[in-house]
Amino acid sequence: MLPSRRTYLLLARNQARISLRRMKSQQGWFMRIVMAVMLFYSAFILLTLGFFFDRFSIELWPGQTPVEIVNQSLLAAFISLFFIRFLFQKTPRMKIVPYLHLPIRRGHLVTFFQGASLLSIHNFYPLLFFVPFWMHFVVAEGTISGHLMWIGAIMLLILASHFANLLLRGILRQRAALFYIWMSLFIVTAFIDEAAGSGLQQRISSFLFANILSGEATGLILLMAFTAFMVAASTSSLARSLRGQDNDQHGARARVRSFEVPQEWGLMGQMIRIELLLMWRNRRPRHYLFVSLLFSTLYLVFMLSSG
């Protein structure tokens, strides 16, 4: 087995080369320019919104300070960020698989790729809003310890959202039924909260971050405990999935009942039938179908309850 320090250096060098080769092979100069412009434009919007949030908030929420508005919206914002992560951010499991035959401890592989997964645009871009907002508005209120605790709580939320995504993706892969049950319970809870007009989520968010800004350590400790649990649980889930790697080819498949299409549909109808059966048999398109239905239902719940 290679020493841990040398292992991490070799893995980091290899991943950097893979990223550069992938960028060169998959994107032409035109797409690189388009992506750079889009990233720069998004960064500019977030920075501007962070520095001049009061110019926008006074029109939409008169009578409330920018800090109060952001505090009561933080939990909802990070739940939304989590859903965006879930659609676009993948677990590091597939990056680890090619290294399993090498004389490298699986614990080192899991640790490295869990840490490397933090190098994501979903983790850095929120800071483009929160850091300017913190410097311009939050520092003007409360104590110095409260200021530092507030921005620390934001970073903890980003980490918790990141590792919660990894955990739930692992659960979706290993225990899909449990994932669908959790998501259904969340949708029902969100619908009841919105339909009843209680605003429980906003109250919890406002109370938690107002206390943190005032210098109370209880809320920060709770966030630290939640983040630590997500890190440990997602790491354990990733390690378990690697232990079952050898048995993946014998994993359970969906039981597909064949169905017939009208004869007048011809060859095209038969090809569509076969394609649908293959899609349902494969785990990934089947999961994406269910997840899209859950997310669209959640979006519809929020739209109807706020309408």
Count all strands and give the number.
Answer: 0
Structural class: mainly alpha
Number of domains: 1
Mean pLDDT: 79
Computed Rg: 23 Å
String of helices and strands = HHHHHHHHHHHHH
Shape: globular
Helical residue percent?
Answer: over 70%
Uncertain segments are: 248-252
Instruction: Tell me the number of helical segments per DSSP (H or I, 4 or more residues long).
Output: 13
Percent of residues in β-strands: under 5%
Distance between the termini: 60 Å
Major sheet = none
Short summary:
This protein is an all-alpha fold and 307 residues long. 79% of the residues lie in helices and 0% in strands.
Question: What's the helix and strand layout?
Answer:
Blueprint: H1 4-26, H2 29-51, H3 53-60, H4 66-88, H5 93-96, H6 106-116, H7 121-138, H8 144-174, H9 176-196, H10 200-213, H11 218-243, H12 266-281, H13 283-306
Helix pairs in contact: 1-6, 2-7, 4-8, 4-10, 6-11, 7-8, 8-9, 8-11, 9-13
